[in-house]
Amino acid sequence: MELSSRVMARLWRSPRLILGLGTLMWAGNGVAGRAIAGQMSPMLVVTGRWLLVFAILAVMLRHRWREVAALWRTHPWRVALMGSIGFTGFNVLFYTAAYYTSAVNMNLLQSAIPIFVVIGSVLFMGASITLVQAFGVVLTVFAAILVTTVGHPENVLSMHFNTGDLMLLLACTFYAGYTLALRGRPKVDGLIFFTALALAAMVSSLPFLALEAWRGEIVWPHAKGLAILGYITVFPSLIAQLLYLRGVDLIGANRAGVYANLVPIFGALLALVLLHEPFHIYHAEALVLCLAGIGLTERGKIPVPTPREAVSL
Q1: Based on C-alpha coordinates, what's the Rg of the chain?
Q2: Could you tell me the residue ranges of all domains in the chain?
Q3: 133, burial (CB in 10 Å: exposed 0-12, middle 13-18, buried 19+)
Q4: What average pLDDT values come out for the chain (313 residues) when binned by 10 residues?
Q5: pTM reported for the whole predicted model
Q6: CB-based contacts of 283: which residues, under 8 Å, 6+ apart?
Q7: Chain Cα centroid distance, residue 155
Q8: Quick one: which of 212, 221, 182 has its CA closest to 49?
Q9: In 15, 108, 184, 289, which residue has its Cα 20 to 30 A from 23's Cα atom?
């Protein structure tokens, strides 16, 4: 038991492993998102995922509700905005954009997240970035473009962008803002903080669900839809978000945001394994470029937390 605790503590101090696992789970969300299409209406997915996440956390922290309430009293606007914009806003725009744009464009435009994070850090938080780190960001973005354009990055110049693409760019801006806000989050237990955010996301999603119901567009899930929602809840919505929160704590918003470009690459690998889609040479090239870019952006000192911090989110 003691050995297991030491191993987990060491793993919890590894930003590469933490953020790598988190982005792998987000990539799985892309596969799940395709599978749940037609099984469950978009806003029902958004509300359902955060309702279930909040329910799980409520049971886990049933003896610590005073801490959650105290956080809401001391930082009501920060918690409400981060949960509403970073979680609900991103998901509502993401699922709505899917009706207006292609999957290729959706994967490509998500590469804007690390760019927005870097720009926001420099403009609003006084952060600095070296030329080597900037080159690393460019490499990871190019890797994502390579995957989403099936090995022909020059096709970006001839792509048509529409209203859905603009919605997705706004969604990326929301998540970049959430990432930057994590830098100054209240110094409380991460589980307490995330529970408060999940509550904000659940409540702020209700008006969108009500609108979907009023328009008569709700699609209630059957067994398959519920199973997919279960995956989306436990992995991309709960575990991956907690891992990302921890990753930002360890290496900062700039460097953590770059890992978002692993999502389309991991997505291609998961499609190969789960959907038996073909694996091409550009997939391997993109993975190498993305890992090289992440390595360059991580040049510099990575803070190592104390043992107490390592076992507490």
Answers
A1: 19
A2: 33-310
A3: buried
A4: 59 80 82 75 92 94 91 94 94 80 63 77 76 77 70 68 76 89 85 94 96 93 90 91 86 75 74 68 74 68 38 33
A5: 0.77
A6: 147, 265, 268, 269, 272
A7: 26
A8: 221
A9: 184
